[in-house]
Amino acid sequence: MAVSHDMLSLLSDPLLVIIISLLPFNEAVRTSVFSKSWCNNKLFKLTTNIEFNELFFVKSSNPSIKDLQRKAFLDFITFWIDNNKETIIEKFSLKLSMPKNVSELTEKCIAFATHRGGVKQLELDFSDPNWVEYNNVAPYHKFDEPMFELPEHVYEVRGIQTLKLYSCRFVEKDLLKFHALKEVSFGWIEVSIFLINTLLSNCKLLESLSLKRCWNFSEFYVRDKNQKLKKLVVDKCSFQYELFRVVAPNLKFLKYSGMMNYFDIQMCPQVVEADLDFSTEFGFGGNGYRLYNLMEDLYSLKVLTVCSYFLQVIPTGGELLRMERNFNVRHLTIKTEMNKNEYKGIVFMLRSCPMLERLTIELGCARIWPNHVQPFAFSPKNFWTENVRIYECLKSSLEVVEVKGFKGFDKNEIRMLAYFIHCGKVLKKMTINIEKNITLVCNKNSDLNPHRFAEFLLRVPRASSDLEITIC
């Protein structure tokens, strides 16, 4: 007769603790059902990775239920701290809105994370998910002051390598004590560009810098003298002047989301991936040349994500049809609604990326910006079918096309995908992901069936005999 073994129970406790600590905190707690030893010995409580996240508990929009869920969350924190005072913590995250209402517990929680001085990754997020953003760019910073202040004892924990502070005020000069920092993220707070450059200068190991909805930048000018910065994220921050300048010789990843600026990306030959989102921009006029010049600076890219605004504006820059110098992009992601104002930008990118191997199309909401003017006239209805041109990437390199959020309601989606099937000579795989929230709409209107529209694509003549189309 076969004997059932609990293989996990055969592992030593130190090894189990290492395994548990590699798991997300909520998953580590759930592991108590996996093994008798884990449950009986409470090994999951020895995890060195602690994450107290209010959103794990508070899920209801009903105010009374929401209050009860928040109380349960606070009770859970209290119980955990009181029963695990000897825990050695390496990674700690606290996500809590309205911390001033429970300031004593918040202080106690942070002290719990730092009391042994071994924490290497510290994240304190006091932002409110319900906060309203001003023009989708920056918070109402005149009214939304940081919700909490970093306790003084935290500055003495010199071994912190990852520091993430959201709506958490800090003393700039004391922050410079963290010489071991490798990753820094600030959000929903006032930050000076002087601090950013001083951190880059003093923290000689700093590789990643992220700024989310921060303000009080006169202009954005980052200079990495230590040449260690590899990742830079600037997400909907507020600048007084329209200048975005970066000098970072070893930068590899750049994400920018916000208004158009005068971009000056100097000495960044190593950048291989960029995510550019200008969806918060107010108008169209005059930005084509700025955007074109930015893309000339980012000639080394291999992975690129662009928004609808980018597609509408890029053909109005230095060249109408393509970049003067070819991109090195291998994977291109376009966020589009497939409206007529985006067509020329899509073709512009196909022409400019002759070595493109993978194209991801994220279908979603877009809009037409004021004063938008097409670079030249064309017929939107026949754009993908008349005078068909096969661009270099479709002849020699484009092997994968992935579509996310397919609804099938817009014939423009069908026409464009049919174009890739009909012209992609080396295309091997096309994956069409149906929009998950579309089922209810389809049930009310039987004519709206994305599966039926997607299956039409299966009958389109294929340029590649190796092409496999998957609908899911």
Describe what this molecule looks like in 3D.
The structure is a single chain. With 472 residues, this protein is of the alpha/beta class. It is 27% helix and 21% strand. It has helices spanning 13-21, 25-30, 36-40, 63-83, 103-114, 172-175, 193-202, 288-297, 308-313, 340-352, 392-396, 411-423, 439-444, 450-457; strands at 49-53, 91-95, 121-125, 133-134, 138-139, 148-149, 162-166, 168-169, 183-187, 208-212, 220-223, 231-235, 243-247, 253-257, 262-266, 273-277, 303-306, 331-336, 358-363, 400-406, 429-434, 468-471. The longest helix is centred in the first third of the chain and has 21 residues, at 63-83. The protein starts with 12 loop residues before the first helix and ends with a strand.
What's this, in brief?
Strands 1-2-3-7-9-10-12-14-16-17-18-19-20-21-22 form a 15-stranded parallel β-sheet. It has a 3-stranded parallel β-sheet with strand order 11-13-15. Helix 4 runs parallel beside helix 5 (103-114). It has 14 helices and 22 strands.
Features:
14 helices; 22 strands; 15-stranded parallel beta sheet; 27% helix; alpha/beta; Leucine-rich repeat, LRR (right-handed beta-alpha superhelix); 472 residues
